[in-house]
Amino acid sequence: MALKMQCDASRKEVAGDAGEASQVLTHKWYFSRKEIELHSPSRSDGIDYKHEEHLRKMYCSFLQELGIELKVPQLTIATAMMFCHRFYMRQSHAKNDWQTIASVCMFLACKSEETPRCLNEFVVVAYKLIYKWDPSASRRIREIYDKQKQLILIGERLLLHVLAFDMNIEHPYKSLVAAVKRLDVTHKDLVKVAWNFVNDWLRTSLCLQHKPHYIAAGSLFLASKIMKVKLPTSKGKTWWMEFDVSPKLLEDVIQQMTSMWEHSQSQSQRQTVAQKKEKVTESPIIKPTSNCVKKMDTSRETTNRQTSDTGSGGSVVEDGEPVTVKSDLSSSCKVVNSVGVVDVSSSCKVVNSVGVVDVNKIREKLKNRNLNKTMKRARVEEGVNDGEDWIERELENGIVLQSTYPQKQRKI
Questions:
Q1: Which residue ranges traverse the bilayer (predicted)?
Q2: Of 59, 121, 195, 385, which one has the greatest count of Cβ atoms within 10 A?
Q3: Core vs surface per residue 130-161: b (16+ CB within 10 A) or e
């Protein structure tokens, strides 16, 4: 009974806080470029704009992967991304772990878009994805399942408070599809490219600056330029009038999109060139010197000698008696056989029909491999301990919410 009273009191407190928050936090979910770049909550905690952009891409990629694992539609994934964007325009990255908040955003988006997922299943899938680098995560989730479940529920309350219970999200997909139908666009590839652009812009701050129909109009225009397709008119109206947008504001949207697209293209080209250079330097072609080849030919032309069937390559039979022959090859020479080019050094060589094998080198590689396995196992065990400590610490401290009007932090 006491527990029930506490729960009721907690609900009233959250409801009261939500009412006050809705008055203090206006339903302004679109921000200027200056506000996003210079005055976000993360900026006051020392996180610069580039780092925040990187974190934005990280949690969007995580949400996309989580949505695929949960088998939810793209609309649900897009809603989770928007929840996350809005949350970090009210709260700082420095005080809220992005993987935890992103997981909570997906959990709430599944409910909002009427594609709910069972909490038990959700906790397991999200935890495995967060710790996918750790092979013991699937086993460890059994030990801390209750704590992780409580963390998701606490995070959901925090998210609802920050969003002021405003879960009404509009996406550019609807405007894009409606305009394509009205314009009677039959070029399927054009529509696909525009749709992909909409998905790309959801991972940037554009969806925080401009309304969905502007994002849809800019995506269609940029797709038409890339595909070199002229957009049709409908009933004497130009294509952009089907989106009900202002030409001046649309021009600003298109300029930002073009700049972002060109930057991403140049970045991908630089990465491709770097990868090609790495491949060239990783596999150098070793060729034998002319001196080595001459010495090999000289050693093979030894008269009245036959190779022993049981002896090694370094011994020959002369007049019925095995005689050891000293090699004239230096350590820099290469032995050419049917297998390929083999490096010959003066110490500890075993010669067989396959080629030259360096025993010391093999022992060294085995030793290094065992050492790497030991170090990797130690890192995994260290990561396990860190992960458990992190979860326990978050549950002990709660998820801190920076209140808007009291001059202190409050735990939810």
A1: none
A2: 59
A3: bbeebeebeebbeebeeebbebbebbbbbbbb
